[in-house]
Write a structure and sequence with these properties.
The chain is α+β, with helices and mostly antiparallel strands. The protein contains 9 helices and 4 strands. It is elongated.
């Protein structure tokens, strides 16, 4: 898996501070923006986040390039609907040499890993034969790929471009950085959070599951009981 922050709103913290301050100031917006000094956004944002006034966070966006996650992971990712996605198509892209994600619990057991690899080999062979058989019947390469893809597994790797605003990212990190999140999407969320903190450290200082924000675990009786202290900054 590789996560790259492709683009983001310039000066995201300053923009959020200007938007939020507009709610409380009689001054023209241009004046608020022009006369805000460098230290003011950090102080204002800290107070804003403590108050839970999150709507101004929607004004700034972050776009990530995510390479090499499984289709199982991308299916979970796109459930976060306040976002935009552009994903590699199995209809237009030949998957004869598709990559595969192997869960660590399987990869670390030689017997289970052998079963997994053998299954992937059989699927790859079937995909190739289906594709070629369909093309012999007069189907185009695209038409053959779009039908042969039905046999591909959830572990098949994909690439996806993801854009979220800062408010949705906070929600995403709250849900997916949790120990109870599935391991692959938790790894994805951790890497995305690390990238966000490089360009907006105040906005994302306390991002993460409830156990590190002081709210108490939202999982109730299903809590793992192990706060992710490594996410604290």
């Amino acid at each position: 898996m590789k996560v790259t922050l492709l683009e983001h709103t310039p000066n995201p913290e300053r923009l959020v501070a200007v938007a939020a301050k507009t709610c409380y100031s009689p001054e023209p917006i241009e004046a608020i923006h022009s006369f805000m000094d460098d230290a003011e956004p950090q102080e204002f944002l800290s107070r804003l986040l403590k108050l839970g006034h999150e709507s101004p966070l929607e004004h700034c966006t972050f776009t990530f390039g995510v390479d090499g996650i499984s289709r199982a992971c991308s299916h979970q990712l796109v459930r976060h609907r306040m976002a935009s996605y552009s994903q590699k198509s199995q209809r237009y892209v030949d998957e004869n040499e598709y990559g595969a994600v192997c869960p660590p619990a399987i990869d670390q057991d030689s017997e289970l890993a052998c079963i997994y690899d053998n299954a992937l080999y059989r699927i790859a062979d079937a995909y190739f034969k289906l594709q070629k058989g369909l093309m012999k019947k007069g189907r185009t390469k695209e038409q053959a790929c779009e039908d042969a893809r039905y046999i591909l597994p959830n572990c098949c790797t994909t690439n996806i471009v993801v854009t979220m605003n800062a408010r949705e990212l906070l929600h995403f990190f709250n849900q997916r950085c949790c120990n109870r999140a599935q391991w692959e999407i938790r790894d994805l969320a951790d890497q995305m959070l690390a990238e966000c903190r490089k360009v907006a450290p105040v906005l994302f200082k306390n991002a993460g599951p409830d156990c590190i924000t002081g709210k108490g675990c939202g999982e109730g009786k299903m809590s793992c009981g192990k706060p992710r202290k490594e996410l604290l900054v």
